[in-house]
Structure prediction request, 375 residues.
Amino acid sequence: MFDFTKEQEMLRTMVREFAETELAPKALELDKRGEFPRDLVKKLASLGLLGISTTRDLGGSAMGHLAGTIAIEELARVYPSVAFFLEVGTGPVYAISHFGSEEQKKKYIPPVLKGEKIMCIAATEPTGGSELTNLATEAVLSEDGYVINGRKVYITGGGVADQCILLAKTGERASLIMVERGTPGFTIGRRQDQMGLRSVDVSELAFNDCKVSKDSVIGKEGSGFPIAMTTFTVARPAIGAIGLGIARGAFEIALKYAKERVLYGKPIARLQAIQFLLADMDSEIDAARWLVYYPGAALDKGASPRDIIKASSRAKAAGAGVGVSVTLKAIEILGGNGVSPEYHLARLLNDAMELIPATGTQQIMKIIQAGEILK
Prediction:
């Protein structure tokens, strides 16, 4: 069991109240419009959620990684798209705060934590997928900087981000390079349609003789791949937290319905078949919760990203899996109403399905986990 601090419990209450008052009434409409809710970014910043694990000297809340997991779970319980935005912002801030220069930290991080700027990481390519080492995007060093050519796909936040941390080849190795929106040669392609997380922008990005300065490299030249892998390891459990939040939201909808829906002269919650489904859902959620919480708690206690590689991949896989499994059971309990938009379960299921490939498929997570087991 985890012993949550008073501060963490207060955080959970605060985020839950925000989700219930600000997100729940708008969830169906936001999903129907499918627009990125930029107005909510400032509200998340005002609550200190955008820099929840970032140090205070950079404008963060310094509450830790477990606190971030809790916040994302509570947001996802009501509207997973906003939780996913919070997860996406974790990676760029972590990369710069841990590997960037002091100038880069001061320049890029505070505006993001204040909600004034949005940042994304662009790694995936049309022919690469999970094989990030198979890079076609290239940044060639010239006298006055780098000239970038290439294309990225499935970039979360790519169409709305003010700054993009790009993974590109620089010679024999890869580097992470900051590219500002509006830089000549940097264009935003089509927004990619998706079945769930409708308010999350996922876009293609193109770079055609895009020129940036030499000091745009995050960390040392050639260190892009290990920095990216470290960043993904730290951020990945947040995907699991979104799945956990979805599962909790679906369970609560199903439980309420089962207590109120009367058939055969009694609430269906008294039917053994329904009780079995509820018991399974409850067990799945509790089992996943501790797997999802563990990586953040370990980091807060001093573990390094290297120490949590197995736990991180396991947290993502468990959380994504429970989001789908529990929501499907909830739909069974509601029957025909389970696929009606007004009961939210169809929306939650679509969102949960989006988590399966996010940051690597379930099979990729097992490969990572097995690799650590076999060392």
Observations:
- The chain has three domains: 6-113, 119-221, 236-373.
- The domain at 6-113 is CATH 1.10.540.10 (Butyryl-Coa Dehydrogenase, subunit A; domain 1).
- The CA atoms of residues 180 and 335 lie 49 Å apart.
- The two ends are 28 Å apart (CA to CA).
